[in-house]
Each structure stands twice: as structure tokens, then as C-alpha cells.
Amino acid sequence: MQSIISVSGLTKTYASGFQALKRVDLEIRKGEIFALLGPNGAGKTTLISIICGIVNASDGTVTVAGHDIRRDYRTTRAMIGLVPQELTTDAFESVWNTVSFSRGLFGKPADPRHIEDVLRSLSLWDKKNNRIMTLSGGMKRRVLIAKALSHEPQILFLDEPTAGVDVELRQAMWEVVRKLRESGVTIILTTHYIEEAEQMADRIGVINRGELILVEDKVELMCKLGRKQLTLQLHDPLDAIPARLAEYGLTLASGGAELVYSYDTQGERTGITTLLSELRDAGIRLKDLNTTQTSLEDIFVSLVREPA
Length: 308
Hints:
The chain has helices spanning 44-51, 73-78, 95-105, 112-121, 137-149, 167-182, 194-200, 218-225, 272-281, 296-304; strands at 3-13, 19-29, 33-37, 59-64, 67-68, 80-83, 155-159, 186-190, 203-208, 211-217, 227-234, 251-253, 258-264, 286-293. By secondary structure, it is of the alpha/beta class. A six-stranded mixed β-sheet has the order 6-7-8-3-9-10, with helices on both faces. The two termini are 40 Å apart.
């Protein structure tokens, strides 16, 4: 798939000596939803800010649709919409004027129909004449998204877009994101709600201490790093696991009423059939069984966990 953003050897060192990014290489595919995950201070916002032309890199190159972000600043910036973390906007202006003004900043002619469509899609139409200062935090967040969409960008950066937004509104926002992707807009998001990345993203990138430590298709990532657990509910609780079952690495749970078996989803054999046969031969009767799989959050935590 064609790349719309190419990042090569990107480094950022601040005057204090802090190195926020360390030779980051990244390709963003046209029309995808790419989720960038990382703990606080990992470099997510710095990376986004450089691509958007807000912060200057110390070294490396970034191109947007083949245009260098330094040489062709106006061209690349006009292709990008950014929804920042901070709720910064003109508190005394109306929603309509704020969003319309943002469109004009990019040299776009007035288009009331487009502004109306954006406001309606974000459930802001009935607030169009309200001053920003009168809106709730969630409403202000939606205004930021509307401003970012006002000039019809090809790429949309969402930096923690649903922070402080209730669950219902969050779901509505993600429906808007899906529709944008369907229209061809490339979406790059950072989020602390990892379940959103698991639900929405096509690919996942994990950044930690300024280094991009992993970029993978979401499905492949879940298969490679995910593990499944088989929980066996026992008819009669066990005090200890029989020695003959030691090779399976079983653990007792729920006061001996359950056996838990972990297995690799990519292995040629799960070993479940043999395990069940061994349990039967050992006289261990089962009441029920169920399986669970490692979540994206589990994988993320394991990737960024501090070494012991």
C-alpha cells in the first residue's frame, strides 16, 4: 500500500539535552488508521508535532505525499488536520465563527455547507451560535475536531482526542473517524484508551523513551504476541497439581477449583487434546471450560515495562 507519510532518521534533542526522539523511521499508509501507543513522555506528541510542522527536528527527514515538510511547508500543512491534546481555542467566539476561521487560515474559500456538515457530524449544529466558553469539556473537544476538519485535510492527527469525553460521546466520535477513513482520510491517533486502538486501528506503533520499538499490523501483532488461556473448572477442587501434569505448566486458581493452561496461538499444536486426555486418566473431572486471549493492553504493558 502507498505511503502518505515517510519518516526517516528523525531525532529531536531539546536545549536541555533531553532527547525526545531517537532516529525514528516510520511509514504511514494512505487511508489507514494508525495508532501510536506509548507511556507519558515517550515521544508521541513530539513526533506528531514535527510531522505537523509545529516543532523542528534536530535531524532526519519527513515527507508528506512526497513533499518535504521543511521545503514545502505550506503544501504539507494544508494536507494535515491536527486535534491537539490541549483545549485551546478562542473562548469568546462562537462555534461557527471559530470553525469557519480555521478554514480561512488555510486559504480555503468560504463553504458554509461543508462547515454545516462537519458540525452536524460532531453533534455541534445546535451549538453553532454558542460561545466556546459556555461549552462543556467534551463539546470543546469536538470543536477542536471540527476545526481540524474545516479545511478538508487528507491526513488527520488525533492526539488523545477522547480524553475527558464520556463513553457515549467517545463512541460517536469514533463513528465519525470510521466515516472519515471510508472517505479516504488517513488517521493517526494517540490514545490512553488502548481498547480503542484495539477496536479501531489497522496498524499499531509502540514508542518508548523516544524509540519506536514496534510497528505491526494489529491482527498480526495480536497473533505474534498474544497468548490464549484455557480455564478448566473442576468438579472437585485440587490441593496440588498432580506430578504427571507438570509438563503443561498448569496453575491452580480460585482456591483449587480451576486449572489454568496457557498456550501459544502460533504453535503447531496447542496441546489441549492431550491435556484433556491426561486429566481424564488422572481422574480429574471437569465442570466447564472457557478460553480467553491476551488483549492489546497486556501486550503494550509487556513491551514498555521497566526492566527488573
